[in-house]
Amino acid sequence: MSQVTIESILQEKRLFHPSPEFSQKARIKSLDEYRQLYEKAKADPQTFWAELAEKELHWFQKWDTVLDWQPPFARWFVNGKINISYNCLDRHLATWRRNKAALIWEGEPGDSRTLTYAQLHREVCQFANVLKQLGVQKGDRVGIYMPMIPEAAIAMLACARIGAPHSVVFGGFSAEALRDRLIDAEAKLVVTADGGWRKDAIVPLKDQVDKALSNNTVPSVQNVLVIKRTGQTISMQPGRDHWWHDLQAGASAHCPAEPMDSEDMLFILYTSGSTGKPKGVVHTTGGYNLYTHMTTQWIFDLRDDDVYWCTADVGWITGHSYIVYGPLSNGATTLMYEGAPRPSNPGCFWDVIEKYGVNIFYTAPTAIRAFIKMGEHLPRARDLSSLRLLGTVGEPINPEAWMWYYKVIGGERCPIVDTWWQTETGGIMITPLPGAIPTKPGSATLPFPGILADVVDLEGNSVGTNEGGYLAVQHPWPGMMRTVYGDPDRFRRTYWEHIPPRDGHYTYFAGDGARRDEDGYFWVMGRVDDVINVAGHRLGTMEIESALVSHPAVAEAAVVGKPDELKGQDIVAFVTLEGNHSPSDALLKELKEHVVQEIGAIARPGEIRFADALPKTRSGKIMRRLLRSLAAGEEVSGDVSTLEDRSVLEKLRQGGA
Ligand code: WTA
Predict the structure, then answer these.
(1) What is the pTM of this model?
(2) Cα-to-centroid distance, 539 and ligand 1 (Å)
(3) pLDDT of the residue at 642
(4) pLDDT-based confidence at 621, cuts 50/70/90?
């Protein structure tokens, strides 16, 4: 990874303390307080989580066992009955929060909308009734393929309300990728929009849904609900497609939240791994509700008058946990923005902060690097004095970007929470608690109370101070994924067997490399598997390789990441062609477009190199390490003795075919 080299962070010694004023008002006020909480949770995790679950959430019926751990399968709050939509909405209605802004939304063209808790509750109930009317029942999966508009959150909460697990698919994924996910989840209904705004253009969501469902390739889908957002002409298939506004207006606003079992599935979210197709990460209700609730409250140090803005898309886990469920469960005001900074309005994020007086701002390092490039004059021209806390997520942040964020956006007064976590973990795992833990640029600092994070070798032994190893977690936590949808064996293999279980003790393998420094701070180095992180988007190299070889001209493909100043990593594909095809610029373009068709624009390779052959070991494995060095323009070092045909390497070095 270009931005975060071992050398640069080993030299990073700066330490930033929260101001006394910030700490005094904070939820967790000092390092001592954090340490006490941490030790308490470590000594007796079940009591720690149970006390919080009791105090912080509404239960229709209390659990009888806090944790049932049959490694690697966990059940939390066994036999408890709970509904996360109730916790996000209904319980606030009986308080002064009834008319508090729950959701503030700003559309890219400049339109805006605010929904109070009472209004959001009403919309969610109506939509839940629309879903029921179309035959959606408890347990049925619902696909959500939406722009960043309030209806995305409304649809999620309505599903949760009636116990229909949702599977949100990021609007930037192609029709093919959408189809794969709908098939795997056996979705019964899809919620979408005619289109959405992004960077001054319309994303044609409904057209993509039509393509995904064409030729009845997803027979499980019976109905499609369409929200009118952009107003462009789309086709509506009679019997299958319905306008949201037609049905919503006539639906009753009375829809009690269904008491769900703690372990009933809340959602499936697909994410990329190192092998095969994206996997459906399954999260359940009770533990996820508690974990997102507590992490949001302590890490973002929520106060009741805060305006909180997370810039993620609801199509990713960050949007699920920290735009929708965590903030609303806490009764916060969560802000949602439809678009992205764009040539016609590169300062739009700062406009939004000024307009709404945003207090807490949570974004990705790749966005920060883009802001740096767009220029300091843009944020400097706005009043950002409302900000009191900043956050980052998605990839390691380079200390330079951290410092810029701290100085230019935070005015040197806002702590930064660099939050490490994953789709699989449900919520933030390693992070500063902003009033308590001094920060170091580039370090996610210390684990959240209750999280026994560690850096280990492949036998599961903790490595020494400042030694590199694998990021791992030693005890189950409430927000953890429960399984891979339809494939419990894959769940076991992917996360629990890289480090062989010992004496019944299982260690969660995160797939990231890390080290701990002399203060116990974690420094996350990036993925150790065949997953690459492009502009904060997680992509499997195998997925992109499969997309490439599905093109008739391609014989073999190998995809690696190369360091990129803005995106963190960029995609480089090495491709060999079928006999009757030869390299050309036209083919190069065609292959890039083909990947966009198969997966989506986020997977477009930055570079494709044609080659005569790929470097392989004698047993036929592609030597990715060599390709990574070549892609980065480095000297190929280390052991190449297993390389079957050395001339291949020579040719690749000279620029391939
Ligand atoms: C990376 C996003 C360093 C990491 C919430 C992880 C990070 C993957 C950080 C998960 C961070 C996320 N520092 N690396 N603060 N946050 N990552 O599932 O490689 O989209 O495994 O979840 O992002 O990506 P995912």
Answers:
(1) 0.96
(2) 12
(3) 72
(4) confident
